[in-house]
Write a structure and sequence with these properties.
By secondary structure, the protein is of the alpha/beta class. It has 18 helices and 15 strands. The protein binds flavin-adenine dinucleotide (FAD) and NADP nicotinamide-adenine-dinucleotide phosphate.
Length: about 550
């Protein structure tokens, strides 16, 4: 893990852009201008995370560039736009970098023919892939790709992982870890609100299983995305993505399959047929499912995408843990076809890195001494505490969304600031999923945290409660905080939670501020324009 090279793509923080709805009392021109203004405002506010690969033209707006918006809505907002923009609207809008681009530059690379794969958008999944296929069928990509469609991303530097404390208690349905990394000597600096990009290796056991299925001993030289050939084992471990093979891998396997039935099924997979098996296959699934398909290992490696960094919201303040950075990582794990699929980075951070010599540590194990290095970069964000300590701060962060708010509160505690802070936190069960409980209760007791509202969605014997239910209960006080100039911060799940909290905020403006729906929408747009509504959602 010591060959560290710049990776393609830049990774700006998602810049949620509030939209002027079609029903708003504006002409189309006024609406376009306002949307453009907001997009510019939000886009500009996210600057600082290294030069974005494809920063929006100042006069162009990207109203679909909001990860909390549904695919259909995004596509309809881009209707009538050039193909590259409609393709962009099909992406997940997270600018997470897993495709090797950001949403805009991936779409542009497809549109101009520089990128042939339509399956690179990891968070968008199958829905994005299908939409991209349909859009490309409507407007085929340009024939000749321009030479340099991919931009250079941030340089990665090695940092050492120190610990991964268990945050979720025994019996929790989740495995959430407080991951601690050492920044000493890395040159990386951060402020609360920033995110850390980490390039974690694949599961060694999965790599071995793939090599065995290929009949390889792992020493065979294979090409890597940075142009340097490496032994197959090293390449599969640290340079190639083996979790989600691309169409070109399926094509290669189909061409190599001696069995006509296997070749036909592989073609169905390429075509995205819903009944094609195995669904959601990783490389091992394909090798096991199609034993007659054995291309040369170098060709197979060349067909695989490069392994990409994952972003994590930072959960610490440099004032509290100088020289270190902490994260709050939910380990992704799912059973599929009798095998446990582990999220590449979250599993490495959560438990795999802890004890490489011992193989897989059991989930729930606590801190261990670590010795491994991981390539990393800092993603500077627009998500920032107010300059004035007097400005009231409302933080809404269920689940791992707590991460930046732990950083905010650590920071304010280290500065000796008291009061004017309100945290909405929630998760499944109070007994097992109250992340950072001791610290939060300590801050509540010493006045760093003025108000705390907790919502447990699966506590036995109590009705399912979400953070927005608590917000509704506290609507009058929340409204008063807003009247006092509060800033509202939200972090966590983009697809459901952030959307529902946004709706709740509007409802509170209507009930407490006696606004109609249009005025509530204008209020939230103004709030965002004043930088008083900040989102870090994924
Ligand atoms: C700005 C930002 C901040 C973030 N902050 C945090 C944070 O603070 N804490 C946190 O825990 N996460 C955070 N995330 C999410 C994080 O970046 C990762 O996406 C998450 O940890 C999963 O990564 P992974 O490598 O473990 O999983 P991956 O290997 O990328 O898998 C991700 C998903 O794909 C599925 N999958 C895996 N293999 C396949 C397959 N073969 N076919 C189809 N589907 C498959 C998995 O089941 C899983 O649902 C953040 C993301 C962003 C963009
Ligand atoms: N694939 C995986 O294995 C896996 C594992 C963990 C997280 N994730 C993803 O990672 C992201 C963050 O996960 P997380 O563990 O931090 O938390 P999370 O899954 O978002 O859950 C945190 C809390 O939010 C609740 N919640 C669910 N829907 C909500 C809504 N519409 N409004 C408000 N609250 C809602 C959850 O309740 P309920 O769950 O009880 O409804 C839970 O109490 C999410 O996108 C999640 O989908 C994936």
């Amino acid at each position: 893990m010591n060959a560290i090279s710049p990776i393609p793509g830049a990774f700006p923080q998602p810049a949620p852009v509030p939209l002027i709805p079609e029903t708003a009392p504006f002409s189309a021109e006024q609406r376009a201008w306002l949307n453009g203004f907001l997009a510019g405002l939000y886009g500009g506010a996210s600057a600082g995370g290294g030069a974005p690969a494809a920063a929006p033209e100042p006069e162009e707006d990207f109203p679909w560039h909001d990860p909390a918006m549904g695919l259909d809505e995004r596509l309809s907002l881009a209707a009538g736009k050039p193909p590259a923009r409609r393709l962009m609207a099909a992406m997940a809008q997270l600018d997470c970098g897993q495709c090797g681009y950001v949403c805009q530059s991936y779409a542009e690379a497809i549109a101009n023919g520089a990128e042939a794969s339509l399956s690179l958008c990891v968070p968008g999944g199958k829905a994005t892939q299908k939409a991209l296929k349909a859009l490309v069928a409507e407007a085929p990509a340009a024939a000749a790709p321009p030479p340099a469609a991919k931009a250079t991303g941030p340089a990665l530097v090695p940092i050492r992982m120190l610990a991964a404390h268990a945050l979720s208690g025994a019996g929790s349905a989740k495995d959430v870890r407080n991951v601690v990394l050492d920044l000493d000597g890395s040159g990386l600096r951060y402020e609360p609100g920033d995110s850390l990009g980490l390039l974690a290796p694949n599961d060694p056991a999965l790599v071995e299983a793939c090599l065995a299925a290929l009949g390889a001993d792992g020493t065979e030289p294979v090409p890597c995305p940075d142009g340097t050939p490496r032994p197959a084992r090293e390449a599969f471990l640290s340079h190639l993505a083996i979790a989600r093979p691309l169409d070109r891998t399926l094509d290669l396997l189909a061409g190599a399959a001696h069995d006509t039935g296997e070749a036909a099924m592989l073609r169905k997979l390429v075509d995205g047929d819903d009944d094609a098996e195995p669904a959601d296959a990783d490389l091992l699934d394909l090798l096991e499912h199609f034993p007659s398909a054995r291309p040369g290992i170098a060709d197979l490696a060349a067909s695989l995408p490069g392994l990409k960094p994952r972003l994590y919201s930072i959960a610490s303040s440099p004032l509290a843990v100088p020289g270190k950075v902490e994260l709050c990582v939910s380990v992704v794990r799912a059973e599929r076809r009798g095998r446990t699929r582990q999220g590449v980075a979250s599993s490495h951070l959560g438990f795999r890195a802890l004890s490489p010599a011992e193989g897989h540590a059991a989930p729930g194990d606590d801190e261990r001494t670590l010795s491994n290095l991981m390539p990393a970069y800092m993603q500077v964000s627009h998500f920032r505490l107010p300059e004035s300590a007097e400005t009231p701060v409302i933080m809404c962060g269920p689940g791992t969304g707590i991460a930046p708010f732990r950083a905010f509160l650590q920071h304010r505690a280290a500065q000796g600031l008291k009061g004017r802070t309100w945290l909405f936190f929630g998760d499944q069960k109070s007994s097992t999923d109250y992340l950072f409980r001791e610290e939060i209760e300590g801050w509540r007791a010493d006045g760093t945290l003025e108000r705390l509202s907790l919502a447990w969605s699966r506590d036995p014997g109590t009705p399912k409660t979400y953070v927005q239910d608590r917000m509704k209960e506290e609507a009058a006080d929340l409204w008063r905080w807003f009247q006092d100039g509060a800033r509202f911060y939200i972090c966590g799940d983009a697809s459901r939670m952030a959307k529902d909290v946004d709706t709740t905020l509007r409802a509170i403006a209507m009930s407490e501020g006696r606004m109609d729906a249009d005025a509530a929408r204008d209020w939230i747009v103004a709030l965002a324009r004043q930088n008083r509504y900040q989102r870090d959602v994924y």
